[in-house]
Design goal:
Shape: flat
Number of domains: 1
Strand content: under 5%
Number of helices: 5
Radius of gyration: 14 Å
Number of strands: 0
Structural class: mainly alpha
Helix content: over 70%
Largest sheet: none
Length: 87
């Protein structure tokens, strides 16, 4: 699912493609991880429209922006994992 999110760059398309396949084979509780994979792939995608506009408009560099996005992605994965352990 991460690959779908990173290739497409649009979160909703990745979810539609992957959730329709996974709902028959895995329990609903684990669909959270599927959504997480698509979401993180969407954030880290170089084709993400917000990322492209930010880098172009503010004349920034992709590596500097990815430092912040990467940290956010790691924190999101950790928090999601902890929350699903509690549920």
């Amino acid at each position: 699912m991460f690959i779908i999110g990173i290739v497409v760059g649009i979160e909703s398309v990745g979810m539609v493609l992957s959730i329709s396949i996974l709902t028959t084979s895995i329990p609903a509780r684990f669909l959270i991880y599927g959504f997480l994979g698509v979401y993180i792939g969407h954030l880290l995608s170089p084709s993400h429209p917000c990322l492209v506009m930010t880098v172009e408009y503010y004349k920034s560099e992709y590596l500097k922006v990815y430092k912040y996005i990467g940290l956010s992605a790691i924190i999101t994965v950790i928090i999601t994992t902890l929350v699903t352990m509690v549920i």
